[in-house]
Amino acid sequence: MRKNIRFLLFFLIIGLFLSWPIHTLLNKLDRPAEEQQLAALDHIAQELLTHTKRGELEAAQEKIRQLAERFPQQRLPVSLRIDSLNAVTQSILAAKNSFAKSSTSDQLLWHATRVRIAIDALTHDHQPMWRSYYVSYATQMQNLMESAVERNYDQFRQQFDENTRLYLAIKPAMSIHLREEQIRQIDAAYDLISKELRRDRIEWQMVRNALRDLNVTMQAAFIGKDQSTIAQLMRPASPFPMFVAIVAAVVLTLAYVAWKKYRGQMNPT
């Protein structure tokens, strides 16, 4: 009996280690050519961001050149609105121009990040990278509201510029998953606040109202549809079902072997 338990544990561990690589291999084999090419672009975008963070500008420039050449020829597995497609294309071209002009490191990193997030949004429908910026964005919105309540123009102006910069970095990616109406609402709120800040006398109540509306819209954009943990585990992209199948097969096999051994002991011939 102990020997059977050791065999069971051994095969369970082997199944655990094999479930992920087998799942990854099957996914690659089942992927259409368009998805495989898009995954390659996603990898290049990640390398672009990594090289930029390390200050390896020549390598980063080569990666953005590859993206600029390949993306227009890429057949997307999903249909995109023309404005979303243009947003991704313009982010790539803007990054290419920024690297060609030898911009500051902060500017290059911002462009590389925007491209990385945009390409990621094309390959990840459920958990795109841009949604991970929710905490940073929410914190900025809270600080903006406090500055608006205190009517501190200089502080509010600086925080609003930072917040706008964050929004513009994730906007191309957001446009892929959000409705056109949502993007228009967000842009309208930013335009309203920007115009108000250029006035000689700022209507702070209007600014606060616009911030509240913007915060509600952005919360809905970031959070999206709630999904349970079980749904996440059982979705096709998860190796969990494969692991369960391997474990079940091992358990059934060992149970059959144990039953045959038991029958042999009870009925010796």
From TrEMBL:
Highest taxon of the lineage: Bacteria
Annotated transmembrane regions: 240-259
UniProt entry tagged with the keyword Transmembrane: yes
Name of this protein: Sporulation protein
InterPro entries: Spore_YpjB
Keywords noted in UniProt: Membrane, Transmembrane, Transmembrane helix
